[in-house]
Amino acid sequence: MAIQADGLICFAAVARLGNVSRAAEQLNRSQPALSAQLRGLREAVGEPLYIRRRSGIELTEAGRALLPHALSAERGLRQAREWAEKVHSGQWGQLSLLASVTAAEYFLPQHLAQFCRAFPEVQVKIEACNSQHVEDLMLSGRGELGIVEGELSRLDSALSARPLLEDRLVLVISPQHPWAAGTPQLADLSRCLLIQREPGSGTRAVTERAFQLLGLERRTLLEASGTQTIKELVMQGVGAAFLSSLAVQREVGAGQLLMLEFPELSLARPLTLVTLEGQPLSLPAQQFIKLLTATQTTAGQNSEV
After folding, report:
1. With 50 as the cut, is the pLDDT of residue 229 above it?
2. Where is the HTH lysR-type domain (predicted)?
3. Overall number of domains in the chain
4. What is the pTM of this model?
């Protein structure tokens, strides 16, 4: 007869408590059921495992030899239950995120820090690329959650979108820029040398659409794929750039960049959460969405006060 794990668990409890009745109570079993497990274990070993004394039970030599294995099985079961509880509550597993450059650098870090503190055993992987690429990678199954700038470019795709918060693009210049001392008008934008994000970027798509609607010409000085690179170029006086207000808060506050807005130019766009339509989400992903939603709700309430 083979040794059964349940018999080891029962034996470990009896050995630890020194009493069959107390062991049955702790394991939430009837005493006859526990005794049946102990008989099966004794038959599998082929030797008595304990002797009943007036003061309780006394382990035999075979029982003492078996006890470390029984305690190991008991410990393994306890650890397995703890692990299963973590999995069930979303505290264990993996979270794979794809995010636009702006979202990855200026929106997600504070939320990821909060998530990692709450769920330290969840392995988080984040990949930053432009919004178009995020959609492509989501459709290929590369990530479970995505965050893009603006609305989805594929309205008929298998992707589902949920707006998280409204961001706006602003024109930033260096304090040495000729416009720093004046009040540029909308028509002046057609003469402005712009540093732009690469094709596929959500920031670029929103800017191009706004210029087209207003009949403005865009004069592109150069393209760069990173927001930080563009900010450095603007601060060096190379040109001007339309960037997320989230991305330039620090530099504007420090006086390294000046922020210009044109009332006629609507550059508001949402940061959008992307998932695969009909695809069940892992518990860590559900927990992260819950955190994002709660944070944005709180932020919205505070802004109304």
Report:
1. yes
2. 3-60
3. 3
4. 0.68
